[in-house]
């Protein structure tokens, strides 16, 4: 995202916020700083742990006895969204949402958190294509650290988390989503192509039940043959 912003707007017009938590790995901090340095953009570091702890204290009594789940994870994303929007309001920056088409398709994103922003630049770019795009952008100058390509994708909202805790590998997910969205294939047709029936049903349910999130997302740029929004309209209610 930062690379695209610099190419489109110029480095002097791009600000990167680094918002680490207790779950942010040293590698992620190093990669973010290294990328920003190579791009020549200004960055600010705003740790979110103190804010997160204040939320936990506020909910301590209300959530007593309840098992931790995505609620605590989503709070972190929403803290970051609030910080981004505060800087936007105060200084006039446009927040660029970072969700890709794979995440947006299955709802692997947080309303009012990482979905916050004024423009969703890669919302029609599947995760596997994001890697291809980054490799393309990396050819002349190797701006993006190699570790970003090789490490397991993770939101870093809990210990030892990876995207594959909740999703199949992205090459499989993107293949199924392309058949569902761009090619409008039925579950049965997709299963005939060699994908497991239970997985296809699960992905279809995630796709349909996440429509309410997409209705509230920032506008995006059309890249594939069928983008969400004007190119694909579905009701929020579903029969699952």
Explained architecture:
The structure is a single chain. By secondary structure, the chain is mostly helical. It has one domain (about 1-60, about 70-215): 3-Layer(aba) Sandwich (Rossmann fold), CATH 3.40.50.620. It has helices at about 1-10, 25-40, 50-60, 70-90, 100-105, 125-140, 145-150, 170-180, 185-190, 195-210, 210-215, and strands at about 15-20, 40-45, 95, 120. The strands form two sheets. A two-stranded parallel ribbon has the order 1-2. Helix 5 (about 100-105) links the parallel strand 3 (about 95) and strand 4. About 25% of the residues are buried. The mean pLDDT is about 95.
Short description:
This protein has about 240 residues and is mainly alpha-helical.
Strand order of the largest sheet: 1-2
- The low-confidence parts are none
Radius of gyration, taken over Cα atoms and rounded to an integer in Å: 19 Å
Largest sheet: 2 strands, parallel
Shape: globular
How many helical elements? Answer: 11
- Following the backbone from N to C, one meets helices and strands in this order, namely HEHEHHEHEHHHHHH
Q: CATH homologous superfamily, by name? A: HUPs
